[in-house]
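The protein record reproduced below.
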Amino acid sequence: MTTLPSLAALRPVAPGIAAGATPSATPLRYAFDETCSVLVGWQRRDGVLRMLSPTAAVVGGIAGLRPGDSLRLLLYRDEMVVRDCRVVRTTLQGVELAHAAPGGDAGAPPVSMQ
C-alpha cells in the first residue's frame, strides 16, 4: 500500500490554477512538467518545472541543492524568462524555490529576456 497520491491527483483542474490564487491574479503561463534549466554558479542543470506561482516554483530532477542556495531559474516557451531564486527546501516533488531579487528579497517580479 502506498501513501503517495497519483500523478493525476497532483495536477491542477485547469492549467494556470494555483493554490491561493486570486481571480484578479494573472494566470500562470507554464504548465506542469515543462522543461526548464537552473544556473548554479557557472553550471547549467536541466530539470522539470513541477509548479510555478507568482512567488514560488518547484523544480524536479535537480540534485545537490540545499536550503539557502541562490540560483537562476530559466523558463522556456514563447520567450526566455529568468528568475533569481533561493532554495527553500527539498521534497519528494523536487526543489522548492522562492523568487528573489538579484541579491535581495524574495517576492520580486521576474526579469523577462527578449
Notes: The mean pLDDT is 74. DSSP finds one helix and seven strands in the chain. Residues 35 and 48 are 5 Å apart (CA to CA). The chain has one domain: 26-105.
